[in-house]
UniProtKB/TrEMBL annotation, chain A:
GO terms for biological process: peptide transport; transmembrane transport. It is a peripheral membrane protein. The lineage of its organism: Bacteria, Pseudomonadati, Pseudomonadota, Alphaproteobacteria, Hyphomicrobiales. This is Peptide/nickel transport system ATP-binding protein. InterPro entries: AAA+_ATPase, ABC_transp_ATP-bind, ABC_transporter-like_ATP-bd, ABC_transporter-like_CS, Oligopep_ABC_C, P-loop_NTPase. Belongs to the ABC transporter superfamily. Residues 11-259, 295-533 form the ABC transporter domain. The keyword Transport applies. The keyword Transmembrane does not apply. Keywords: ATP-binding, Nucleotide-binding, Transport.
Automatic annotation (TrEMBL), chain B:
Keywords: Cell membrane, Membrane, Transmembrane, Transmembrane helix, Transport. SUPFAM superfamilies: MetI-like. This is Peptide/nickel transport system permease protein. It comes from Pseudaminobacter salicylatoxidans. Its main location: membrane.
């Protein structure tokens, strides 16, 4: 690229803060960025690092309480900060556009997909409605959607998440912009769908040569996608450089910590199979879950009723002290099984726990409830916001006795220590804790009853990678101390390969196979397992350092 | 929305009306009113009363009386007014027509004011305009219609003489005079609903304007008008439809009061007169007709809702 060519995007000494009361909360500090034509810059950071604020600043879509310094943001020769609202509206969607994190919320639920695409063409290219509709069909075909004409007439809820994101991408590319900002475009999608969207992105990017700012928290993903990476920590770019160099020889400690926190399947965190010959602790035999019920009208009209299948005759064993991973896309029935095992879903079939048969909620006595605990994905939803930590953690002790001779409060403080939280947290409310700390409280609550099986349902997927690493470390510690068996439900295959003894793969309610973790990558796996594994982005440290 | 859903809803309306008919019939049975006394007067002889009761079937078991009544209703025969001796049906339906005219004008007037007020308040949230609209809504909610009606008649009709204080002229007879007579009743009946609906539209639109898809629309460079009307208002209006349908229930009640104050010969006034005269057949038929109106309006609201929001799958 010739030296004299102006970069497509240049950000110079830009700082941003938000006025909160009388204070200013600093979000971005002296940011310098450039992106040239044809280049992809990856912007990596954890939640709260300011990466989304960067996108808003470039798009000039800031909250009213935003306070900016004198720094400059240029798109080509245009000073974005000097544009009037009308000029900005002319720029947005035509010269700079955006692909959003969650296509389910970025699309208007009551407008046809075609209209949401065509309106951009009508606005910026002066096409008539008929022309724009026609052009829209071509654009949809271009992003790999089958039967684009039909797709134009669909509403967002009638298509899959991947299809929605393709429409959003088609809209972003519609007017051949100079710059596109991708704000975590695959975070809300399944593994396989993400892979396809990334391939589409790579193809379109190479074809159009559009400059791209790719924002993500996923280091592995950025390493595969971007040529250059900037690492953002608390509003500051702590390191920036060529992707390969940055991952091979990270200079800044934060970058090193981030790279180190990414799960690597080759780095096992758990000892070999605890008791290969032991009798299973739990036997799940032909457990099926169906959602929906036959309505009165259906029976009156003698209509056939087709329930929604959550699980179809799932059969598996869990040995004492074993960590069983369950992986699959959303809707594959992972959580449905967890809910059935904890009595939150009705099921057909048999669950045998420690030799005792459980056929339904009524068989789940006090012992079963003490022995089988569950930790949910969102601690915000699973911890009562109006209860103090002391009340939250007192409940399992009250229900299941706890240890004799020790005051309840003392037991709670000990448990807090075990999950590496200060004992002073005991009188706090959940909202006074960070996401990772809240999840530790949820884990503490599960372990207070001394369970023999803990079901972890996507417990780290809402957490940043470094927080995830510390929560996993804690879980492994507790595993060693208590010898409890885990069912670890996740969509993060790299992570599960680190910690599970065996992995169960689920697809649309069916259990595809259960395999030993070492054998998950073997060539004789089921086709779906191989497809799933192929879609996973391996950690950058593996692909780039090798 | 499936045809079977629509059929189911229609069946549900009939079921509701059946229950209402039982209730109405039951209540009128325990009212301290004797149809025979009503017809023959206080001084009638016991024999004459007994003879009339027998001929009217008032001595039959209650369930037989009910069946006879509901059987007539199904065939369009609502019985005979005790007061006037005329058939109930034609008189009530003509009164219903008058009330519906009042109701339709009120709804239109209300929407024409409430929607823009709600939208403006939402766009200028927290600013003076918003506060002013909120202030007006609070006043509107706080004033019952008999107060506003009295004030309106006092100032506009009596003191300033701009509009007629009472009475009704059918629009088909004299459109200008008909409209002049409608203005005050329509305004009075609309005020509370304007307050309701404008607040609803405001809060829904404020929520919608904070969604991701509105942000996306801004970042696509769309015009403010298009974002507001095509993307925002359409989604904000959906809940408002439900409120409007519920307000029709209020409208039916409000119409009774307003018709009484402005001497409009609508169904509300007919019902009031019937209650005062203990004219049981008219009371029964009137309540049934109002219940039917309410059910049908709510059904229509559901249909419109489903038509506007294609995600809604009634089944």
């Amino acid at each position: 690229m010739p030296q004299d060519q102006k970069p497509v995007l240049s950000v110079r000494d830009y700082s941003l803060g938000y006025k909160v009361g009388s204070d200013t909360l600093s979000v971005l500090k002296t940011i310098n960025l450039t992106i040239n034509r044809g280049e992809i810059l990856g912007l990596v950071g954890e939640s709260g690092s300011g990466k989304s604020s960067m996108a808003s600043a470039i798009m000039r879509y800031l909250a009213p309480n935003a306070i900016e310094n004198a720094g400059a943001i240029h798109l080509g020769a245009t000073d974005l900060r000097a544009q009037t609202p009308r000029q900005l509206a002319d720029l947005r969607g035509s010269r700079v556009s955006m692909v959003f994190q969650d296509p389910a919320t970025a699309l208007n639920p009551t407008l046809k997909l075609g209209e949401q695409l065509a309106e951009v063409l009508m606005r910026h290219q002066g096409l008539t409605s008929a022309q724009a509709w026609k052009a829209g069909e071509e654009r949809l075909a271009h992003v790999g959607l089958k039967s684009p004409a039909e797709m134009m007439h669909r509403l967002p809820h009638e298509v899959s998440g991947g299809e929605k994101q393709r429409v959003v991408i088609a809209t972003a590319f519609a007017c051949n912009p100079e710059l596109i900002i991708f704000d975590e475009p695959t975070t809300a999608l399944d593994v396989i769908t993400s892979r396809q969207i990334l391939d589409l992105f790579a193809g379109l990017q190479a074809e159009t040569g559009v400059a791209s700012l790719y924002i993500s928290h996923d280091l592995a993903l950025v390493a595969r996608t971007a040529r250059r990476v900037a690492v953002l920590q608390k509003g500051e770019i702590v390191e920036e450089g060529d992707t390969v160099t940055l991952f091979r020889a990270p200079q800044h400690p934060y970058t090193r910590a981030l790279i180190g926190a990414v799960p690597r399947p080759d780095r096992r965190l758990v000892k070999a199979d605890p008791a290969p010959e032991a009798a299973p602790l739990v036997k799940v035999r032909g457990v099926s879950v169906n959602y929906g019920r036959k309505s009165l009208l259906d029976s009156l009209l003698r209509r056939d009723f087709t329930p929604v299948v959550g699980n179809r005759a799932v059969t598996l064993d869990i040995k004492p002290g074993e960590i069983l991973g369950i992986v699959g896309e959303s809707g594959s029935g992972k959580s449905t099984l967890a809910k059935a095992m904890t009595g939150l879903n009705r099921f057909d079939g048999l669950i045998e726990f420690d030799g005792k048969p459980v056929r339904g909620l009524s068989d789940m006595g006090r012992d079963y409830r003490r022995d089988v605990q569950i930790v949910f994905q969102h601690p915000d939803a699973s911890l009562n916001p109006r209860q103090r930590i002391s009340e939250i953690l007192a409940r399992p002790i009250r229900l299941y006795g706890g240890r004799d001779g020790l005051p309840r409060r003392r037991q709670i403080e000990e448990m807090l220590e075990r999950v590496r939280l200060p004992a002073t947290y005991i009188d706090r409310f959940p909202h006074q804790l960070s996401g990772g700390e809240k999840q530790r409280i949820a884990i503490a609550r599960a372990f207070l009853s001394n369970p023999r099986l803990v079901i972890c349902d996507e417990i780290t997927s809402a957490l940043d990678v470094s927080v995830q690493a510390s929560v996993i470390e804690l879980l492994m510690e507790l595993h060693q101390q208590t010898g409890a068996a885990y069912i670890f439900i996740t969509h993060d295959i790299n992570l599960i390969r680190q910690i599970a003894h065996r992995i169960a793969v689920m697809y649309r309610g069916d259990l595809i196979e259960v395999v030993a973790t070492e054998a998950i990558a073997a060539p004789d796996r089921a086709p779906y397992t191989r497809e799933l594994l192929a879609a996973v982005t391996p950690p950058a440290s593996l692909t780039l350092t090798a | 929305m499936s045809a079977s859903y629509i059929l189911k809803r229609i069946a549900l309306i009939f079921y509701t009306l059946f229950i209402v008919s039982l209730l109405v019939f039951g209540i009128t049975q325990v009212l301290p009113a004797d149809a025979a006394v009503m017809m023959l007067g206080e001084n009638a002889t016991t024999e004459a009363l007994e003879a009339l009761r027998n001929s009217m079937g008032l001595n039959d078991p209650i369930w037989m009386q009910y069946l006879r009544w509901i059987g007539g209703v199904v065939q369009g025969d609502f019985g005979t007014s005790l007061r006037t001796g005329q058939p109930v049906g034609p008189a009530l339906f003509s009164a219903l027509g008058t009330s519906l005219t009042l109701a339709v004008f009120s709804l239109t007037f209300m929407l024409a004011l409430a929607l823009p007020m709600g939208v403006v308040a939402a766009i200028r949230r927290g600013k003076a305009t918003d506060l002013f609209v909120s202030f007006l809504s609070y006043i509107g909610v706080a004033l019952p219609e008999f107060v506003t009606a009295t004030l309106a008649v006092l100032f506009i009709a009596d003191w300033w003489g701009i509009l007629p204080p009472a009475g009704y002229v059918p629009l088909s007879q004299n459109p200008v005079e008909g409209l002049r007579h409608l203005v005050l009743p329509v305004v009075v009946v609309s005020i509370i609903m304007i307050a309701h609906v404008s607040r609803m539209v405001r809060s829904e639109l404020v929520d919608v304007l904070h969604t991701d898809y509105i942000r996306a629309a801004h970042l696509k460079g769309l015009s403010r008008g298009r974002i507001l009307l095509r993307h925002g208002l359409r989604n904000a209006l959906l809940p408002a439809i439900t409120i409007v349908a519920l307000d029709v229930g209020y409208l039916l009640g409000g119409v009774i009061v307003v018709e009484e104050i402005f001497s409009i010969p609508g169904i509300g006034r007919a019902l009031m007169a019937a209650i005062q005269a203990r004219d049981l057949p008219v009371i029964q038929a009137g309540v049934l007709i109002m219940a039917a109106t309410y059910s049908i309006v709510n059904f229509a609201a559901d249909l419109i809702y489903a038509w506007l929001d294609k995600r809604i799958q009634y089944d």
